[in-house]
Write the structure tokens for this entry.
Amino acid sequence: MLVRVQEHGAVVLIEVKEERLDAHNSGELKAQMLNLFEEGKNNMVVDLQEVRFVDSSGLGALVSGFKNASARSGNLKLSGLQPQVKSMFELTRLHRVFEIFPGTQEALASF
Amino acid sequence: MMSEKIEIDIKVPNQTRYLSLIGKIGEDIARTLKRYHGDREELAYHINLVLTEAMTNAIHHANEGDPEKEVHITITLLGRNLNIKVYDQGQGFNVAALPIPEPQNLEDHGRGIYIIRALMDHVSYRRTNGGNVLEMVKCLEEI
């Protein structure tokens, strides 16, 4: 799983550099987020601009990250959802759970 | 006029690295449906997705991650019906017993079958020789 992790003050930006986020690689994203939580980084933006396809496992990894962040009084927000990816959040009603921003700048500025 | 028929039969090892290969085959089939008047790109995504979800269930739950087992997939397009079957070699699981996921419960798992049911017109899971088959049918009304 290719991700780029950058710190922007108290917020970590995770850019997922994969076309697919599915049962094959979502576990790695989950592990990556857990490492960050263990380092005390509880505010995250996950940017999905390059992700064209997400399945229920990919959604599950993001939900897991969201729950971990919330439990630590942090937040996990999303940015850059392509239309088909956004429709997955709508189908599973997760668009009501996550704060979703068009781009990383807006997402980072919202903290 | 005879209706167009496409039939694809493929077997892959019981490993998630083949999800994208099978998903892409499904997408490409949706894109060949020149007579489909609906949103072909949306259909392509949905077929990719249900194949990915069904295969993931077979790999993790039915075949219990055993890399020696295999997943067998058939995709048949006959007239308006797109029929997808995913065969596993395991004990299976009770599809009917799965609850509808509630967004407020925020579970990490359990959305796969819900997604398949939401996107396909007919879904069944039954025992077959040496395993089970998850059958999903989409009626392409806009053809």
Chain B has one domain: 5-139. The first helix of chain B runs from residue 19 to 32. Residues 65 and 75 of chain B are 23 Å apart (CA to CA).
